[in-house]
Amino acid sequence: MRAVVHDRYGVPDVLRLADVELPVPKEDEVLVKIHATTVNRTDCGFRSADPFISRFFTGLLRPKRKILGSELAGEVDAVGAAVTEFAVGDHVFGVKGFGAHAEFICMRESAPLAHMPAGMTFEEAAAVCDGAILALGFLRRADLRKGQKILVYGASGSIGTAGVQLARYFDAHVTAVCNTKNVELVRSLGADEVIDYLQEDFTKNGKTYDVIFDAVGKHSFRRCRGSQKPGGMYAVTDLGFLWQNPFLALWTSRIGDRKVLFPIPRYTKKDVLFLKELIEAGKYRAVIDRCYPLEDVVEATRYVETQQKTGNVVLTIDGGRAR
Ligand SMILES: NC(=O)c1ccc[n+]([C@@H]2O[C@H](COP(=O)([O-])OP(=O)(O)OC[C@H]3O[C@@H](n4cnc5c(N)ncnc54)[C@H](OP(=O)(O)O)[C@@H]3O)[C@@H](O)[C@H]2O)c1
Fold this sequence. Notes:
The chain is α/β, with parallel strands linked by helices. Helices cover 25% and strands 26% of the residues. The strands form three sheets. Strands 3, 4, 5, 6, 7, 14 and 15 form a seven-stranded mixed β-sheet that branches. Strands 10-9-8-11-12-13 form a six-stranded parallel β-sheet.
């Protein structure tokens, strides 16, 4: 099969298309023919080995796992003898740490994989899981409840667009912060209020929040403190400029009434099924910025690394396919 591989860490140009062995499903696995996948910030971090600490998971000197790609949507091509949930021809979507930048992938039946929501294209379904499951983990960890006030900073990214929609689903009052060009989009995702950060600094308007969700990791606990209610949470997706956020999370868990949250994300099948339900109820949609064919993975990756994408960037394989 064709796959995008990388033999060393570095700039997007280390990615290349290659012929690799077709995986064979084990007893409890399904073989999925992938029609669409994404390039996300996790792929970029693993490829560039930035932060360095990621090498402890991906290989100290060179990548142990040569095929990146976590999200996928496609068609079941073969099933192992013990598989009961899926059959050949089923349309599925899901997420796995590595291996989705390829024509085929094997996943366990119990993995974060589910039947595709009705009426979704492969491109849309591929762009659901990563941002949404990460955002879900943060909102749950912050114990976001009905009527609470949340501010989502970086509301136009993959995690941010998911965070706005999920916070809305949890019946919180959502203030989204983004650039002028994305104001209408985040409003359409359900934000009650939108702050254009080019016009207004939310830390100076005197308003306070139960949860500040820094979905792009560009803000800081220090600057947000004055906008947190007593007992408020600052949930952040990035390590921080000086890798301070995990330490602040530990420190504030014991000291002070304003907390920092830096949860370790986990993809689960339960969450994929939850998102499928939300999508079918019309309460969630994947925001797609651009689609590229798999062959243009280097260009797609360069675009993702501008850190300016709106929502998600999709890769289609053999032209993807409408459902
Ligand atoms: N904790 C984890 O496990 C985990 C996993 C994956 C990713 N991450 C981290 O989470 C962060 C977000 O990931 P993502 O995939 O959602 O990112 P993304 O989609 O690449 O975010 C891009 C968006 O961020 C906005 N943005 C960029 N700079 C900004 C700034 N200074 N202020 C406000 N908005 C800004 C951009 O909007 P504008 O046009 O307004 O600039 C753009 O729409 C990344 O830092 C990534 O490394 C963490």
